[in-house]
Each structure stands twice: as C-alpha cells, then as structure tokens.
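Technical appendix A lists one of the benchmark inputs used to test multi-chain prediction within the project. The record comprises two sequence entries:
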Amino acid sequence: MAAALVSKCSRVGRSLLGGLGNNTSGLLSTSNEIMSNNFLSQQRTFIQMRTVLKVVDNSGAKKVMCIQSLKGKKGARLGDTIVASVKEAMPNGKVKKGKVVYGVVVRAAMQRGRVDGSEVKFDDNAVVLVDKQGQPIGTRVFGPVPHELRKKHVKILTLAQHIA
Amino acid sequence: MRLEKCWFCSSTIYPGRGIQFVRNDAKIFRFCRSKCHKNFKMKRNPRKVKWTKAYRRLHGKDMTQDSTFEFERKRNRPERYDRNLAENTLKAIKKIDKISSDRQKHHISTRLNTGKVKKRKEARNELNQSIHMIKAPSALKEDSSLTLPKIKVKVSQTLAEENQPMEE
C-alpha cells in the first residue's frame, strides 16, 4: 500500500514537472508520459491476500487466490508457503474449485536477494500446490524454479524441469 | 564464483552486482546495472543502442576476432584444483589481458588514422586556397618569401613553412 502511494506520488510529481517544463506541448504529451511512467516504474510487491497466482503443476487447479501468507507480515515472497483458495480448475483433477489448499511460491515477480548479493526475479507469480506436510500434490512441475527451494522443498526441485 | 556478462552491454558482472531476470522459457538475462535493465524492459535492441559492445562489434568499431578472445570462452567442465595450474593461470590472465587490450587499442587507432590523414590534407588545401583571407594577394606578390613554394616536400618541412604566414 505504501508502495502504491509512493508510485502515485512520483507519477503526480513527474506530470507536474512535465507541465512546468513544456507548456506548449499540451495535454497529449503528459498523458503519454503517464503511460510510460506506469510501464517503467512498476513496483513489484509481496504476494498477499487476494493475489491471484498461476498453478504450475498438474494437480488440476489453474488459478489460485492467496488467502494468507504463512510467513512474513507484509506478504509472501519467493520460496514461502501460502494458504490459497482455488479459483479456476481443470474439470477432472485432484483439486476442485473452491477448495482451500496450501502452496509454495516458485516464481515471484518481486526480486529476491541471493546469498551472493545479486537479485533474481521472474516473469510472473506461480505456485505449486502442496499438502500440509509440504509434499507436492501434483507429479510434474512446469517452468523454471529457483535455487531457494533447496533447503525445504526438495521434492519440488526433483520434479522441476529447469532450476534457475 | 563465475563472472558473467551483462546481456545488454556485455560488461562483466562481478558478484553481488545487478539483477537476474528469469523468463518463463527458462532463459536467464543478467544485467550489470539498472540502466541496462531498464533498457531491456523498454524492449530496446542492444545491437541498435550505440554505447553497447554489441553495437560496437557489429559496426566494426571494436575488434571482433582475435586469438586472445579464445581464452575467455565459457567452459562447462570444472577443473580439478591444482595449485601450480592456478598460479600459472593467474599469471597468464594478466599477460593475456595486457596483450588483448593493446591489440584493441591498436585496432581503434588504425580506424581513426584515416580521419587524421584527411584532416591534414584538408588543412593543406585550405592554406593553399584561402591564404587571401589572412594576407592580401598583392602583399604576397611583392614579398615572395611569404608565399608557400608549390613543390611537394616532406611533412616536417611543410609544417614549418605553413607556420610562417600565420605568424605575420
């Protein structure tokens, strides 16, 4: 929320500066500027309540909405577990729509710091459904998964095609 | 520890620097700083952005083929640690670096040489044709020592004689 405020302020500030700078260009340029600012200054944040995530295993669910993040006050990050509700599912799968499930975040658009000091980020927010013990429900995982799962979710790593 | 290359500008990324972006097709893009990252997000093609190594190599501004570049090729097989080998490699890296950078500098200076020759030729032409802007032609006719002799002489001598009318 704070992040959204900050980005809004920056947008307003930039449009003000744009208005002061070139009065002759008119309204069209400032609206374009706002569009491009929107695109460039996208603040990626945590996975919190109401975040819709993609499911990347063959458990049957397609889209899942986060209800609660089990770790972190502001929300879940890469490698954390979340409680989620299934919003969209394949017709014949292990998991049905409306079911409350646990999931492990395997791809997050927000960058996560690595031990060597660099940062990684992915293209989208994706989750792998697990049971309460942490064992994945599905038998395959699609797409790249990060190293960060090495400590706790070894099973998911073994199923993964590509470890980023 | 491995030193990577920035996807956009091709500079080396030291540990702790930059951001790695993993696309869903598992292709990893590494960036050395936010400048390169932002350019990537804008979907700019590095081959068209003037300050990147990709552009410079493509347009012949920098050296593209050299035997010293072979030493930097990515090798996927890890080598068993051998103290002598490590020591020799470190010494070799220094030497190879020096040779490589010398060759690259030479490449750039040869490229800029043609410009220098052209400039000198143009200066000589200008002196021959527009000397009337500095000294009136009638004055030059009276005192023949002030005119440039119309014979081809060695470079060092022409420089000395070009300076004469200027000093007046």
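DSSP finds five helices and four strands in chain B. Residues 83-129 of chain B form the longest helix (47 residues). Comparable benchmark entries are summarised in Table A2.
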